[in-house]
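If your schedule permits, I should be very grateful for your opinion on a structural question. I have a record of one protein: its chain in single-letter code and its fold written as C-alpha cells. Would you kindly read the sequence against the C-alpha cells and tell me how you understand this chain to fold? Thank you for your consideration; the sequence and its C-alpha cells are set out here.


***
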Amino acid sequence: MPRVCFTLQVDPSRLEEYRARHAAVWPEMLAALRDAGWRDYTLHLREDGLLVGVLATDDFAAAQAAMERTDINRRWQAEMAQFFPQLADGRADRGMHVLDEAFNLEAQLARTTSAE
C-alpha cells in the first residue's frame, strides 16, 4: 500500500492545545478516516510547529475526496482552523504540502534481493 507524507505549519504558540486536541480525536472523525481509506496515519510535531503527517492509502486523492464529502470532516476542519492561521481558509486538509518519496529502504532491499 503506498504511503503519503505531507507537511503543514501549526501556530507555534498553540502546540500544547493542538496536541491535546489530537490526544482525543472525535470517534466519528476516526471512523470517517478509516472508512475513507486512511491507514497507519500518524502526525509528528516539531517544537517550531512543523507538522509531518504520514499515512498509507491505496489512492490518496480518493481518500481525500471521501473525507471532503463528510459532515464530520467539515466540522473538524472548522475546529482546527485556528491552528493554521497561514492558510487562507484554515483548512488543513486542503493546505497539505505532499512530499515526494526520495528513499525507501524496503523497496531497495527488495530489488537487491531479487537481483541476487
